[in-house]
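Researcher: Batch entry, complex prediction.
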Amino acid sequence: MKNKNTLTLALFSVTIGASAFFFGTSVSKASNIDGMKLYLQHCKTCHGVDGNPTDLGEGLGARKFADAEWQAKTSDERIIEQINEGTPEMMMPFKEKLTPEEVKALVPVVRGFKK
Ligand code: HEC
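Model: Structure tokens for the complex:
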């Protein structure tokens, strides 16, 4: 009987430990969004894998993200606003598709294309 109690206690501790482990990983995942993955998923059809617009993007009027002058005059807020709101008939808004954290995570990706 005593042994059985010990086993129950041991199983209980393992369960608690496992939940803490899973909870821990899901929390760290939420604050560690892969911006490049989101970019490749949602943006590359128009803006290209390297920030150079595809034929589709260019046809719609997208610029090169490598353009240092554009990078310098464009604020992070402007990039966030563009992703959230889009431009009618040119780029769709993403505020319904992406969380504010995901939109924020895309800013360094766009910045990273600067030459
Ligand atoms: C359907 C094609 C398309 C997709 C998909 C798309 N864009 Fe755009 N994007 C455009 C076009 C076209 C413009 C130019 C719009 C303009 O000049 O107002 C643009 C402009 C921008 C700009 C520049 C805004 C400025 O102030 O000059 C940024 C930054 C941007 N897009 C980021 C993104 C990100 C990040 C994604 C993915 C979440 C994305 N875009 C998805 C077509 C697209």
